[in-house]
Amino acid sequence: MCGHPVPRLRGNQTWQGRAACALAVEARNDPDLFFPSKYASEQRIRLAKEICALCPVKVACLEAALESRDAAGIRGGLTEEERRVNRNEFELRCDPARVTAALAGRDIYLTKPERGELVRRAAAAGTPTVLLARVLKVSEGHAQKLLRRELRVKGGGHLGTYGIVDATSEAASA
After folding, report:
1. 72 exposed, middle or buried (CB, 10 Å; 0-12, 13-18, 19+)?
2. Burial level of 52, CB count in 10 A (0-12/13-18/19+)?
3. Which residues partner with 159 through β-bridges?
4. Sequence-separated (6 or more) residues with CB below 8 Å from residue 46
5. S-S: 65 plus which of 20, 28, 70, 88, CB 3.0-4.6 Å?
């Protein structure tokens, strides 16, 4: 999947106003064009996909549909069945730019591998548990548990009151 230079914020749907389907005459004349029935003609589906192909926000549309598990209609140029096939690939994505954006405080959807990478980076950087909890939208206790698990895997340091305390930096300050 193509990434965005700046990942779309979670829940941000402002891109919809720039969508080709919102502006297409065919869609205004046939509001159900992008929601074909099970028995819709191939020509009708092809027309909807042609409109999507020219859409400037096609990637945002597809990502929004995959993030929300939206199963209805043609989104991002793909039918419901085609999106189902891409869903697993999407959920396995680990885009470093998205992880960096989340660590910088942007509220974006992260896949499970991206969340794991975020925890690894947070542990390595000594990110406070309160910040990690806020970014992952989990309790501080759960964030602390994730950091402890990561530290056990890496084999160094322990959790202090505010986050990670590296064993070597703790020894140096003693």
Report:
1. exposed
2. buried
3. 164
4. none
5. 70
